[in-house]
Specification:
This protein is α/β, with parallel strands linked by helices. It has eight helices and 28 strands. A hairpin with a 3-residue loop joins strand 10 and strand 11. The longest helix has 19 residues. It is elongated. It binds ligand LQZAQKY5 and molybdate ion (MOO). The site of molybdate ion has 9 residues, from loops.
Length: 394
């Protein structure tokens, strides 16, 4: 009989420390100008300024008559938005018919809406209130004003605002690219898994999770077990990785005969930043930096463990790359939850007015509980029942 000597158990890093290491493992990506569709959801890398005033000139706020002096007024023309401006200034006693948004002629003192005017042949009468219904140049937004600060999220509304202010491209921190490698000979990607097979449950949730955290999945590649395919994928040049900033490896993180992540990382000379975390589920997770640049996040193959690990290592790194400040939500936890003496527990919960309530079904191999939950409660070792951190689920 051959005796196999396994590595001694190495003390895993605390969950808090692992999250800190992940956030500190990268720097925010440099600013790039991108078109609006690409900028959506990114953070501004600099302040957004008004390139033009809004409105750009004095315009009418109503459909009616721009008038000078007291009525009745002689009708001197018509001005439409996008049409020809009135050729000269209005003299006292003159009016032009005007559309909402059309430039008011110089000399106009007010706009009298149709509803308040009495039109005759070549003339119009009514009561003018000085300055009424004229939107002055820059009244809404002065030229040069900072309308959104650096770090603001580019929302759909922000895109509309930027366009109104004359911007074509926006200067943002781009979405970090994430390449996903799914390992496992038993993992299938379509249909009902047969005997000895499991359906990939991690590849389908990562794009949404990555997008929610500010990144984008550049590609999802399925690899057979064994070190050579993993090694080839991790040592590909940047263009072979789609320029990804982070490579996520799912499975192969533990100590089994097909778990090659650590061996491949060592062979490639990677700097291992996290090698196991004192958390349940998800302890075999890992974080490393390859010599040629990208970060590698190793997620366990058990899908709920992979989710917990993604929230521990991947999401904090993506948030840092996108320049997103760390936030912390705390709450109370109901139900009968016990802490573990050594490991942090991640417990799927729903947040209610009475505090967070565990939803159950939280086995490492199943996403059932996490799918019912809207957050994971972070139960530290030796928890005393005080307030706890809640990490939001996408
Ligand atoms: N001797 C030890 N064995 C294990 C340990 C340990 O510390 N010592 N840790 C256990 C824990 S905890 C976990 S989690 C797993 C992690 O395993 P791996 O990351 O190496 O992943 P696999 O062995 O490939 O798979 C584990 C499990 O998950 C299923 N799987 C894999 N990929 C997927 C996928 N994309 N979608 C759905 N399910 C997947 C796979 O079939 C296995 O059932 O290791 C324990 N063992
Ligand atoms: O990370 Mo594992 O899922 O705790 O079983």
């Amino acid at each position: 009989m051959t005796l196999v000597r396994h590595d001694p158990v190495v003390e895993a890093m605390s969950w808090e420390a692992a999250r800190r290491v992940a956030a500190g493992s990268v720097q925010p990506l440099g600013a790039v100008p991108v078109p609006p569709a690409e900028a959506l959801g990114c953070r501004l890398a600099g302040p957004l300024r008004a390139l033009v005033a809004v409105p750009g000139v004095d315009v009418s706020a109503m459909d009616g008559y721009a008038v000078a002096g007291d009525g009745p007024w002689r009708l001197a023309g018509r001005v439409l938005a996008g049409g020809e401006a009135h050729p000269g200034p209005l003299a006292a006693g003159e009016a032009v018919e005007i559309a909402t948004g059309a430039p008011v002629p110089a000399g106009a003192e007010a706009v009298v809406p149709y509803e308040r005017a009495v039109a005759g042949a070549g003339s119009v009468d009514g009561v003018a209130e000085a300055g009424r219904h004229i939107r002055r140049r820059g009244e809404d937004i002065p030229e040069g004003a900072v309308v959104l600060e650096a770090g603001a999220v580019v929302t759909p509304v922000a895109l509309g605002l930027a366009a109104a202010l004359g911007h074509d491209d926006l200067l943002v921190r781009p979405r970090p690219g994430v390449l996903v490698l799914i390992t496992g000979d038993e993992v299938v990607h379509k249909g009902r898994p047969g005997a000895g097979r499991v359906r990939d449950a991690i590849g389908p949730f990562l794009p949404g999770l990555v997008e929610w955290a500010g990144g984008r999945v550049t590609d999802t590649v399925h690899l057979p077990d064994g070190p050579s395919a993993l090694r080839a994928a991790l040592s590909a040049p940047p263009e072979g990785r789609g320029g990804a900033d982070v490579v996520v490896v799912c499975g192969a993180s533990s100590k089994g005969p097909a778990d090659h992540l650590r061996g491949v990382l060592a062979a490639l000379g990677a700097d291992v930043l996290v090698d196991g975390v004192a958390v349940r589920p998800g302890h075999p997770q890992a974080l490393a930096r390859l010599p040629h640049g990208p970060l590698v996040a190793g997620l366990p193959g058990n899908p709920f463990a992979a989710l917990g690990a993604a929230l521990t290592l991947l999401v904090p790194a993506l948030r840092r790359l996108t320049g997103t400040p760390a936030t912390r939500e705390t709450g109370t936890l109901g139900g009968d939850v016990r802490s573990h003496p050594r490991d942090t527990r991640l417990v799927p919960v729903r947040r209610t007015r009475e505090g967070a309530v565990p939803v159950g079904h939280d086995r490492p191999g199943s996403l059932w509980g996490a799918a019912l939950a809207d957050a994971l409660a972070v139960v530290p070792p030796g928890w005393d029942g005080e307030r706890i951190e809640l990490i939001e689920l996408p």
